[in-house]
Specification:
single chain; alpha+beta
Length: about 140
Amino acid sequence: MIKPASLRSALVAAISSLRINPDALTVFIDRGSIAATGSHTLSFEYRYVCNALLLDFAGEADDVFIALVGWVRENQPDLVTNPDERANGITYEIDILSNATVDISIKLALTESVVVSFDTEGKRTVTHVNDAAEEWVAP
């Protein structure tokens, strides 16, 4: 899986407090499943909920969500272009710790398609489909 590390990198790059303390961001996966068909290919799709947890965050929530939407537009565009996915594809919870700090838990419904092919000599090639190839359309 490629997207969780990509999301982490994007958030760390966009949020100054995370650049200083990247350990304040934890990214993990829940409810993972694999969708494969009964066809003659070994190709499949990862389906999972990616959690990004920002601990003791003292910045502006807007900065986090602007960076998040920018990443989603490039890496999982259906979460902003598809009305059905847009409704529940990105969720969050915020725990207010003090007047200055919060914990922010963000959940993204992500997929990653993996194409598995074999050449004539039986050598396997694994390709992760680039979701960024979809053109983003404003709502």
